Fold:
Amino acid sequence: MKLQTILGISAGFHDASATVINTAGDILYAGHSERYSKQKNDANLHEAMFWEFSDGRHIDHIAYYERPWMKQLRKLRSGEGVDLKQLTVRQVLRQQLGGYFSSVPVTCYNHHLSHAAGGFQTSPFERATVVVIDAIGEFDTATIWAAEYDAAGQAQYRKLWGQQYPHSIGLFYSAITDRVGLRPMDEEYITMGMSAYGKNKDSLSLYMESKLVDNMSEIRFQDNLHTGVAADFMWDSEPEDIAGAAQQVVEDLIYSVMQRARSFGFSTNLVYQGGVALNCLANRNLNEYFENIWIMPNPGDAGSSLGAAALAYGKRLNWKNAYLGSEIAGEYPVSACLDSLLSDRICGVASGRAEFGPRALGNRSLLADPRRLDIKDKVNEIKRRQKFRPFAPVILEEHVHEYFDMPSGFVDTRYMQVVGRCRHPDLYPAITHVDGTSRIQTVPADGSGIRRLLEAWYAATGCPMLLNTSLNIRGEPMVNDRADADRFEQQYGISVFS
Ligand SMILES: [Fe+2]
Structure:
């Protein structure tokens, strides 16, 4: 029997992406438009990716991640103005795909349901409580679902609770991100990093909550934070203190939703999705509410191309790992990387398939020796990012507990989704944040390139981990192809091996 293919798309807002699956449940491709267009957070699909995701295949069905008319209705309500050229999914796809795939049947799905499916149908669970928390899609901003497979293996979703626009945890955090001088809908992760430096968190978070939150348990805010907070909001506080307070408030809000989700008693398995699930600091305490936790490595809107495709397919997907994008062919350059790390303490690697999601997990990475304090400054010099931001460690899974106190509950810790306390911060200053935590990526014995490199590094040095940060030219998205890697080499004088 010929396998059919489903093309999932999320596009038109920010971080456009595409996913192709077949009807055996295999994920054939999942990638981000920005990596092709070189425009960070590119909202629109790029023609160069069409060739990769179609790759000579016939696309039988297109699944779109939200309902355009509903979104326009919300935009009408929010005063953003309606775009009459984006009322139907056909209009949106004509804009995104040009004349390509115009005869392929299309289905569009609810925005939060696409998030939920992208998580549940890649999880190992038979049934789970699904929590989705994001900024803004159609109307929903936080939802709780009961998800399970029926006897025929079809995923079934039942919505248990929801909060709607303008009451939004994601919009709250974006408003604060804007207030501290960063770019909303993009640099929330920097706000999170900054929060560790905040002083007087308890009193300032209480103040912030009293001024902005109306009802913590219902996730209701006093004002619509879509347009931000007042420019002079907490005018006498430093940005770090505001970020510290906001992190505390956002955690209280998230845990309030988790508490509610747990109280339905449907399942002790948690699938957590939506852009807010990228807050790896908040994720450390999810195990107070659920026993087993899965977050798909691309839980924001960019991951919803996969979610929409999953809904069209209906059953569990064969999730293996996040290496699903553009391919740089060839053996993983273990010995070249090892030599460079031993001599220069740093190297770039661009090999295999690009990561689907915001984190570089070893295939498009800048790697360095984590044992040296000066390495942080050296990597920062290349990345030219704020000095307060920590770098992440990638570690052989069997050694993780010697170096970090890992929060329990996560069924898979390969994706830098949660922080753990570093047990020897003085020995590994480059990968330890000021609050003593690290955002950890573990690597099991899966034969992957990064696994073999870590094994070789461990054999040579006795250290089972490396510093891992994304390989990108400043201001650009992650390196995608060899030409990008060449430009990186030229600009920074650091070898990138393929
Ligand atoms: Fe979303």
Remarks:
- The pocket of fe (ii) ion is lined by residues 111, 115, 134, 137, 274, 301 (CB under 6 Å).
- DSSP finds 15 helices and 23 strands in the chain.
- The longest strand covers residues 140-149.
